[in-house]
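Revision sheet: structure tokens.
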Amino acid sequence: MEKEKLSFIPKTSFGNNNESVYAQKQAGVGFVFKISAFLFVLSFISLGGVLAYKNIVSGQIEEFSASLDRAQAAFDIAVILEIEKISSNISIAKSLLDTHRFPSVIFDVIEKITHKNVGFSGLSYLHNPEGVTKVILNGEAKDYVSLAQQSNIFEDSRDIIDFSFLNFSLTQDGHIAFSLEITLNI
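Predicted:
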């Protein structure tokens, strides 16, 4: 028998499917390279998108700034200040009117409670800070009965706190002239 020759160089490969170890290493490096190249390209595309978006937003900011400047230029500051002053005066006038007691209410009350045979010819009005309203009237009644009926009407009225007839006299027509002081609840 022949002796077999011994060799330290392998005749077959140690890898799977008869691939060499070098080919296996090359295959792994190729996959990693492909993924890293893909990510590199993707990052450049993303960078381009971000820069394009930045330019678009910068352009819009400039447009809006120019539009705001045009809008501000359209307003006259002096007119705006004058409008604010007028607005302040109007609000002060409104508050005064809201707290003001209207003397015209007095005429409504007197009209409502005046007897048909009694008439008034003069009026003085006083409203003091405590809220008391006094009215002094000069009047004329047909007779004393009408004056008594007028007194009863005043007593029954919720709008009158106090009243008093003063300075009685007869007129040339035979009517009764008088003065009347009324404290009103309005």
